[in-house]
Amino acid sequence: MKAIKWLFQVYIFGSMHVGISVLALILMTNHVFKLPFNPVMAVFGFCGTMFSYNFMKYDGLFRVKKSAGKRVKFIVFLSTIALAAAGVSFFLLERATQITAVVFFALTALYTVPFFPNTRNLRNWSGIKIYIVALCWAGITLVMPLTEVHEAITSDVYLKFSQRFMLVIVLILIFEIIDLKEDDPHLKTIPQQIGVHRTKLLNLFFIAVFFFLEFLRIHIDYKQMAGNFVMVITTALFTLYATPQRSKYYTLFWVESIPIFWLGIVMLASSL
After folding, report:
1. Where are the alpha helices (H) located in the chain, listed in sequence order?
2. Which positions, given as ranges, span the membrane (predicted)?
3. 91: left (phi over 0), alpha (psi -120 to 50) or beta
4. Tens digit of pLDDT for each residue in 183-225?
5. Cα–Cα distances in Å, from 119 out to 59, 60, 110, 124?
6. 196-212 and 155-178 helices cross at what angle (nearest 10)?
């Protein structure tokens, strides 16, 4: 049991779970726009996310002290492999996709690293964190797969980008509710500014907008809408039951599972 618990913690705190969530959204893009599965894009999305998140979470990722625990050292080892895999897959992508990836990598770097003396990174700028993360997720999971196959930019692409951006905002707000007691007041997160109750109402509003935007598609897929409806109800319940007293696993495992669950339920609905 101890070994299973240790592996589960490595899976969660080593950002493999969030990597699979990003991969699920990439596969969702493939499904919606009827794109073929691209293993290079899948590897880049999963490994790039895993490395980036670990780089943000573990200060001095490749300068870990000898006194660091076995779990952290193993995560560093896995992150090194992820970086190598993401690097190789990057050079196998189309040039336009590479440029798109560099743009979002630059945003991630600004989010993580202070480039100028006596300045803070974007992560610490009041209120901006949520939008940077949502923009990066939407870009990596939607823009990059479409760019890789030279997909034309239609109104559906803008629509799906808006939905994807909004979904990530919703998931982050649940995180911010859970982290309310621990977050630095200077971060000025939305729950810090308007309170938990109003944040939940805002989240429910975003979820409703996300769902009804589907009606604006050029060709409405009602099976997709059925899957969306189940995901929206599930996300709404996670929002309503979110409190600062919840365990970290409420978000780190369950809430981050929502994109995976969404992909599964949409694929199931499409097969019926």
Report:
1. 2-13, 16-32, 39-57, 70-91, 95-112, 129-138, 144-148, 155-178, 190-194, 196-212, 222-240, 249, 258-271
2. 7-29, 35-53, 74-93, 99-116, 128-146, 161-180, 201-220, 226-242, 249-269
3. alpha
4. 777 778 899 999 999 999 999 999 999 999 999 998 888 999 9
5. 17, 18, 11, 10
6. 160
